[in-house]
C-alpha cells in the first residue's frame, strides 16, 4: 500500500498529533477468508469520501489532531516476530504521549497493543467488540492466531469486557471465568458496560461484531451481531467516561466492487476519533 492520509486532509504533524493511525497490512494468521491485509488501505481510501462535518457533534473534524504513520510491513519469519515489531511501534507512539490507532489486518495483531497495555497498566480494561471471544490458548498450532487475540492480555490479568459475542468454544467458558464479563449479541447495555470497565481502557474492535448485513466484508462472519447506532452509543460513552489508551479496527477484508462496507469502516473510525478528540 502507498501512504495515504486519514480523511485526505492536510494532517497535523507527528510532533503535535494526539493520535497516530498505524496501518498494518497483514493477514498471515487468518484461517477462513483472507484479504484483511487490504483493509487498512481500503479504510484510508474510503475515509477520503467521509463528510468532515459531524452533525451529531456539531463540529468540523478536518483539523483533528491525527497523524497517519507509514504502514508497518509484515515480518513473516514468525507470527510472534510480527507482534514484537508492532509492539515496538505502539510503545514508541504511546511513550510519546499519543494514542495509537491500529488498522488491521487480521485480529492476531491486537495481541501487540493489548499485551503492551496489560503489562504497562496491570488490571487495565479491554473493551473487546467482536463476534468471537478470541480466547483460545492455541489455534492451528499457534498461540498467536487471530483466535487467541485476547488470551495474552487476559493471561496478564487485564479486565476483559466483551460485547457482541456470538461464537465461543466451551473450553473458553470453562478456562476464562475470572476478570471477564461478556455481553452476548445483540445486547449493548451501555450503562452496565461502563460500570464494569475500569477507568483505563483499550478498545479492540473486530469489524465482524457488526451484523453481516451491515458488514459483509470480513474473514470470519457470524450472523446476528450489533447495529450501527448501538455501536456509536457505546463508543461515545467510552470516549466520554473512560481514559482510552488506544483503539484498533481489525478484520475488514474488502470485497472488490462492494464499497459500502469499506465506507462503513471509515465512517466508524471517523465517529470514534470525533468522540475521542473533538467532542470533549
Ligand atoms: Mn471476530
Mind sketching the topology for me?
Elements: E1 19-23, H1 39-47, E2 53-54, E3 59-60, E4 66-68, H2 79-95, E5 99-103, H3 111-120, E6 125-129, H4 151-155, E7 159-165, H5 170-175, E8 180-184, H6 190-196, E9 200-206, H7 228-241, E10 243-250, H8 260-277
Parallel strand pairs: 1-4, 1-5, 5-10, 6-7, 6-9, 7-8, 9-10
Antiparallel strand pairs: 2-3
Task: Using brief descriptors, characterize the structure shown.
280 residues; alpha/beta; Arginase, Chain A; globular; binds manganese (II) ion; hydrolase; metal-binding; Ureohydrolase
Overview in brief:
The chain has 280 residues and is of the alpha/beta class. It has helices spanning 39-47, 79-95, 111-120, 151-155, 170-175, 190-196, 228-241, 260-277, and strands at residues 19-23, 53-54, 59-60, 66-68, 99-103, 125-129, 159-165, 180-184, 200-206, 243-250.
Structural notes for this entry:
It is a single chain. The protein is an alpha/beta fold and 280 residues long. It has a single domain, classed as Arginase, Chain A (3-Layer(aba) Sandwich), CATH 3.40.800. The protein has helices at 39-47, 79-95, 111-120, 151-155, 170-175, 190-196, 228-241, 260-277; strands at residues 19-23, 53-54, 59-60, 66-68, 99-103, 125-129, 159-165, 180-184, 200-206, 243-250. It has an eight-stranded parallel beta sheet with strand order 4-1-5-10-9-6-7-8, sandwiched between helices. A two-stranded antiparallel ribbon has the order 2-3. β6, α4 (151-155) and β7 form a beta-alpha-beta unit. α2 (79-95) crosses α3 and α7 packs parallel to α8. The chain is globular. 51% of the residues are buried. The structure holds manganese (II) ion. Manganese (II) ion is lined by residues 130-132, 206, 208, 220. Mn(2+) binds at residues 107, 130, 132, 134, 206, 208. Belongs to the arginase family. Agmatinase subfamily. InterPro entries: Agmatinase-rel (IPR005925), Ureohydrolase (IPR006035), Ureohydrolase_dom_sf (IPR023696), Ureohydrolase_Mn_BS (IPR020855). Its cofactor is Mn(2+). It comes from Candidatus Terrybacteria bacterium RIFCSPHIGHO2_01_FULL_43_35.
Amino acid at each position: 500500500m502507498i501512504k495515504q492520509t486519514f480523511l485526505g486532509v492536510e494532517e497535523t504533524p507527528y510532533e503535535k498529533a494526539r493520535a497516530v493511525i498505524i496501518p498494518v497490512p497483514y493477514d498471515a494468521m487468518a484461517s477462513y477468508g483472507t484479504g484483511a491485509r487490504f483493509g487498512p488501505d481500503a479504510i484510508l481510501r474510503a475515509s477520503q469520501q467521509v463528510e468532515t462535518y459531524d452533525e451529531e457533534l456539531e463540529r468540523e473534524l478536518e483539523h483533528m489532531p491525527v497523524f497517519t504513520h507509514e504502514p508497518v510491513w509484515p515480518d513473516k519469519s514468525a507470527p510472534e516476530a510480527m507482534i514484537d515489531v508492532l509492539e515496538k511501534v505502539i510503545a514508541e507512539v504511546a511513550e510519546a504521549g499519543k494514542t495509537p490507532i491500529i488498522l488491521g489486518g487480521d485480529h492476531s495483531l491486537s495481541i501487540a497493543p493489548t499485551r503492551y497495555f496489560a503489562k504497562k497498566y496491570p488490571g487495565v480494561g479491554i473493551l473487546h467488540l467482536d463476534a468471537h471471544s478470541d480466547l483460545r490458548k492455541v489455534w492451528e498450532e499457534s498461540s498467536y492466531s487471530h483466535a487467541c487475540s485476547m488470551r495474552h492480555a487476559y493471561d496478564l490479568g487485564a479486565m476483559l469486557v466483551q460485547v457482541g459475542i456470538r461464537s465461543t468454544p466451551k473450553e473458553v467458558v470453562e478456562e476464562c471465568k475470572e476478570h471477564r464479563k461478556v455481553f452476548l449479541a445483540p445486547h449493548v447495555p451501555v450503562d452496565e458496560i461502563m460500570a464494569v470497565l475500569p477507568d483505563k481502557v483499550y478498545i479492540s474492535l473486530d469489524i465482524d461484531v457488526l451484523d453481516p448485513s451491515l458488514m459483509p466484508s470480513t474473514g470470519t462472519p457470524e450472523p446476528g451481531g450489533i447495529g450501527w447506532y448501538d455501536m456509536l452509543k457505546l463508543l461515545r460513552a467510552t470516549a466520554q467516561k473512560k481514559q482510552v489508551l488506544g483503539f484498533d479496527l481489525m478484520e475488514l477484508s474488502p470485497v472488490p466492487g462492494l464499497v459500502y462496507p469499506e465506507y462503513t469502516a471509515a465512517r466508524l473510525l471517523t465517529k470514534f476519533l470525533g468522540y475521542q478528540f473533538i467532542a470533549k
